Amino acid sequence: xxxxxxxxxxxxxxxxxxxxxxxxxxxxxxxxxxxxxxxxxxxxxxxxxxxxxxxxxxxxxxxxxxxxxxxxxxxxxxxxxxxxxxxxxxxxxxxxxxxxxxxxxxxxxxxxxxxxxxxxxxxxxxxxxxxxxxxxxx
Length: 138
Description:
The protein has helices at residues 4-14, 19-31, 40-45, 64-78, 96-106, 113-126, and strands at residues 52-56, 60-63, 85-91, 94-95, 132-137. By secondary structure, the chain is an alpha+beta fold. The chain has a domain at 4-91 and 132-137. α2 (19-31) packs parallel to α4 (64-78) and α5 (96-106) packs across α6. It is elongated and about 50 Å long. This is HEAT repeat protein.
Protein backbone atom coordinates (compact mmCIF):
# COMPACT_ATOMS: atom_id res chain seq x y z
CA UNK A 1 0.00 0.00 0.00
CA UNK A 2 1.14 3.52 -0.77
CA UNK A 3 2.43 5.85 1.91
CA UNK A 4 0.39 8.90 2.91
CA UNK A 5 2.79 11.13 0.97
CA UNK A 6 2.43 8.99 -2.17
CA UNK A 7 -1.37 9.00 -1.88
CA UNK A 8 -1.33 12.79 -1.42
CA UNK A 9 0.81 13.16 -4.56
CA UNK A 10 -1.54 10.92 -6.56
CA UNK A 11 -4.56 12.89 -5.32
CA UNK A 12 -2.87 16.17 -6.28
CA UNK A 13 -2.38 14.86 -9.82
CA UNK A 14 -5.97 13.61 -10.00
CA UNK A 15 -7.19 17.05 -8.93
CA UNK A 16 -4.85 18.93 -11.26
CA UNK A 17 -6.40 21.63 -13.45
CA UNK A 18 -4.40 20.05 -16.31
CA UNK A 19 -6.57 17.35 -17.93
CA UNK A 20 -3.52 15.53 -19.26
CA UNK A 21 -2.07 15.16 -15.76
CA UNK A 22 -5.39 13.71 -14.60
CA UNK A 23 -5.61 11.37 -17.56
CA UNK A 24 -2.01 10.22 -17.21
CA UNK A 25 -2.42 9.43 -13.50
CA UNK A 26 -5.71 7.62 -14.17
CA UNK A 27 -3.96 5.55 -16.84
CA UNK A 28 -1.29 4.55 -14.34
CA UNK A 29 -3.95 3.54 -11.79
CA UNK A 30 -5.84 1.55 -14.41
CA UNK A 31 -2.68 -0.42 -15.25
CA UNK A 32 -1.15 -0.64 -11.77
CA UNK A 33 -3.85 -0.19 -9.13
CA UNK A 34 -2.68 0.05 -5.56
CA UNK A 35 -6.01 -0.81 -3.98
CA UNK A 36 -5.81 2.09 -1.54
CA UNK A 37 -9.37 2.99 -0.50
CA UNK A 38 -8.34 6.63 0.02
CA UNK A 39 -8.16 7.00 -3.76
CA UNK A 40 -11.64 5.67 -4.52
CA UNK A 41 -13.69 8.83 -3.82
CA UNK A 42 -11.26 11.00 -5.78
CA UNK A 43 -11.37 8.71 -8.81
CA UNK A 44 -15.17 8.41 -8.50
CA UNK A 45 -15.46 12.21 -8.80
CA UNK A 46 -13.69 12.03 -12.15
CA UNK A 47 -16.50 9.90 -13.60
CA UNK A 48 -18.20 13.25 -14.24
CA UNK A 49 -15.17 14.82 -15.98
CA UNK A 50 -16.05 15.06 -19.66
CA UNK A 51 -12.94 17.04 -20.58
CA UNK A 52 -11.50 15.74 -23.87
CA UNK A 53 -7.88 14.66 -23.84
CA UNK A 54 -5.27 12.54 -25.55
CA UNK A 55 -5.92 9.48 -23.40
CA UNK A 56 -3.25 7.10 -24.69
CA UNK A 57 -0.38 6.53 -27.08
CA UNK A 58 -0.78 5.38 -29.83
CA UNK A 59 -3.05 8.39 -30.12
CA UNK A 60 -6.55 7.87 -28.78
CA UNK A 61 -8.77 10.85 -28.08
CA UNK A 62 -11.51 10.59 -25.48
CA UNK A 63 -12.86 12.00 -22.27
CA UNK A 64 -11.19 11.91 -18.87
CA UNK A 65 -14.19 10.00 -17.52
CA UNK A 66 -13.47 7.04 -19.85
CA UNK A 67 -10.06 6.57 -18.25
CA UNK A 68 -11.53 7.29 -14.80
CA UNK A 69 -14.00 4.43 -15.22
CA UNK A 70 -11.20 2.00 -16.05
CA UNK A 71 -9.03 3.28 -13.19
CA UNK A 72 -11.92 3.04 -10.73
CA UNK A 73 -12.72 -0.52 -11.80
CA UNK A 74 -9.07 -1.52 -11.36
CA UNK A 75 -8.76 0.23 -7.99
CA UNK A 76 -11.99 -1.34 -6.74
CA UNK A 77 -10.82 -4.82 -7.78
CA UNK A 78 -7.48 -4.24 -6.04
CA UNK A 79 -9.31 -3.05 -2.90
CA UNK A 80 -11.67 -6.07 -3.03
CA UNK A 81 -14.70 -3.83 -3.64
CA UNK A 82 -17.10 -5.70 -5.91
CA UNK A 83 -19.22 -2.77 -7.11
CA UNK A 84 -19.54 -2.37 -10.88
CA UNK A 85 -18.49 0.85 -12.54
CA UNK A 86 -21.25 2.05 -14.85
CA UNK A 87 -20.99 5.01 -17.17
CA UNK A 88 -23.74 5.72 -19.68
CA UNK A 89 -23.48 7.59 -22.94
CA UNK A 90 -19.75 8.17 -22.88
CA UNK A 91 -17.99 8.87 -26.20
CA UNK A 92 -15.90 5.95 -27.38
CA UNK A 93 -12.19 6.84 -27.69
CA UNK A 94 -11.16 7.54 -31.27
CA UNK A 95 -7.92 7.30 -33.20
CA UNK A 96 -6.78 10.37 -35.09
CA UNK A 97 -7.88 8.70 -38.35
CA UNK A 98 -11.37 7.99 -36.97
CA UNK A 99 -11.66 11.52 -35.64
CA UNK A 100 -10.51 13.00 -38.97
CA UNK A 101 -13.05 10.88 -40.87
CA UNK A 102 -15.88 12.10 -38.62
CA UNK A 103 -14.70 15.71 -39.04
CA UNK A 104 -14.74 15.30 -42.83
CA UNK A 105 -18.17 13.64 -42.79
CA UNK A 106 -19.52 16.51 -40.69
CA UNK A 107 -18.02 19.11 -43.03
CA UNK A 108 -16.03 20.67 -40.22
CA UNK A 109 -12.62 22.27 -40.76
CA UNK A 110 -9.64 20.06 -39.96
CA UNK A 111 -7.28 21.36 -37.33
CA UNK A 112 -3.74 20.12 -36.90
CA UNK A 113 -1.92 18.83 -33.87
CA UNK A 114 -3.24 17.46 -30.61
CA UNK A 115 -4.98 20.72 -29.69
CA UNK A 116 -6.70 20.76 -33.07
CA UNK A 117 -7.86 17.17 -32.66
CA UNK A 118 -9.23 17.96 -29.20
CA UNK A 119 -11.08 20.97 -30.63
CA UNK A 120 -12.52 18.70 -33.34
CA UNK A 121 -13.56 16.15 -30.70
CA UNK A 122 -15.37 18.91 -28.80
CA UNK A 123 -17.06 20.24 -31.96
CA UNK A 124 -18.29 16.76 -32.90
CA UNK A 125 -19.51 16.11 -29.35
CA UNK A 126 -21.43 19.40 -29.30
CA UNK A 127 -23.20 18.29 -32.48
CA UNK A 128 -23.94 14.79 -31.16
CA UNK A 129 -21.74 13.21 -33.83
CA UNK A 130 -19.43 11.10 -31.66
CA UNK A 131 -20.10 7.39 -31.23
CA UNK A 132 -21.15 6.74 -27.63
CA UNK A 133 -21.36 3.61 -25.53
CA UNK A 134 -22.38 2.48 -22.08
CA UNK A 135 -19.58 1.08 -19.92
CA UNK A 136 -20.13 -1.65 -17.32
CA UNK A 137 -16.83 -2.63 -15.79
CA UNK A 138 -16.43 -5.26 -13.06
